[in-house]
Amino acid sequence: MEAMRQTENQQVLVLGATGGIGGELARQLRAAGWTVKALARRPDAGTTADGITWIRGDAMDREAVVTAAQGCDVIVHAVNPPGYRRWAELVLPMIDNTIAAARAVGATIVLPGTVYNYGPDAFPLLTEDSPQRPTTRKGAIRVELERRLRAATEDGVRAIVVRAGDFFGPQAGNSWFSQGLVKGGRPVDVVQLPGHPGVGHLWSYVPDVAQTMRLLIERRHTLDAFAAFHMAGHWDEDGMRMAEAIRSVARRHGTLARMRRFPWWLVTLAAPFATTLRELLEMRYLWRVPVKMSNERLGKTLGHEPHTPLETAVEATLGGLGCLS
User: Fold this and answer.
1) Burial of 45 (C-beta count, 10 Å sphere; 0-12/13-18/19+)
2) Helix, strand or coil for residue 185?
3) Measured distance CA(143)–CA(46) in Å, rounded
4) What is the per-residue pLDDT across 93-137, written as a single tens digit (0 to 9) for each?
5) Which of 45, 182, 267, 282 could form a disulfide with 56 if both were Cys (CB 3.0 to 4.6 A apart)?
6) Can you give the residue ranges of the NAD-dependent epimerase/dehydratase domain (predicted)?
């Protein structure tokens, strides 16, 4: 009830509400009593559904973002170019538009972050203060994105960044889980393994990430102007734990799934002809080396990290993907 009273008359603008993390956070904030607005290009924008007011517009249109943000206390910047495409053209102009809107209305920006910011010199355990020297183009773009966000906090903008591992969840959108490990829309008969044998991998369940962001938003006035947090998520220590959880859930639903190695060789052959595959290859290093995150700072701030048991999270994810009979 206290949280409801604190957020009763507050408004949030969500950019990327049609995606996994943006949509989940929008729903959680609405349930917590926030007035939620979402900027989208989809044809039915302008309607109110699930308690969310949809506004027709594009995150690349600064005027549209500033107008939509009027009256908002928080702007969630969860928008990304789909399929890794056109990052160099779109990512930085979109964050610039969000910063302009936040500056105009006095809102706090909330950003879902990634491990892309970091290079091998920071592995295997990442803290919020680890050096950010990425070796990929997308990593360099993410570093510049956060640099601009941090610079904006020097003249009044406030920002919260929550960095996490590979997303999975019932509505996670484009993800390694839904496009690499299993195939949506049918029972699981094969689980693919993208990682090297014995190499750990970090996974983050979208509802847990959204809940973490919501709790930090409620405490935003007590945080630093630029506040970054890491989530420990689900650590798959040998690269097999997630696959075994998928097989276990599938078995309970009457399907026996086998494992096989992800066909990186095929991706390599097809990459010259497909932008998305070329971008996937650039990030392959994250399947070759273990990369963990320390959530010590998050634990000190919230007292705990929201954490759904793995098989519970996997079952909800497979159900959302249409993989369970």
Assistant:
1) middle
2) coil
3) 34
4) 999 999 999 999 999 999 999 999 999 999 999 999 999 999 999
5) 45
6) 12-219
pLDDT in tens, 146-166: 999 999 999 999 999 999 999
Instruction: Please provide residue 75's backbone torsions phi and psi, each rounded to the nearest 5 degrees.
Output: -120, 120
- Which two three-digit tokens encode residue 169? 């969840």
151-171 b/e (C-beta count within 10 Å ≥ 16 → b): ebbeeebbbbbbbbbbbbbbb
Note the pTM of the prediction, 2 decimals.
0.93
* DSSP state letter for 169: S
Distances (CA, A) of 202 to 14, 205, 269, 287: 26, 10, 27, 10
pLDDT of residue 12: 98
Residue ranges covered by each domain of the chain? 2-172+203-234+288-307
Domain 2-172+203-234+288-307, CATH: 3.40.50.720
| Helical pair 206-218 and 20-31, crossing angle rounded to 10 deg | 50
In the three-class reduction of DSSP (H, G, I as helix; E, B as strand; rest coil), residue 73 is classed as: coil
The residues, any chain, with a CB within 8 Å of residue 1's CB and separated by 6 or more, are: none
Answer whether residue 306 shows pLDDT above 90: yes
Instruction: Round the CA-based radius of gyration of the chain to a whole number and report it.
Output: 19
d(CA 75, CA 213): 12
Q: How confident is the model at residue 2 (pLDDT cuts 50, 70, 90)?
A: very low
Among 305, 304, 307, 297, residue whose Cα is nearest residue 130: 297
| pLDDT of res. 19 | 87
* 279 three-state secondary structure: helix
Q: How far apart are CA 271 and CA 300, in angstroms?
A: 44
User: In the prediction, which pLDDT does 3 show?
Assistant: 45
The angle formed by the CA atoms of residues 237, 126 and 138, to the nearest 5 degrees, is 100
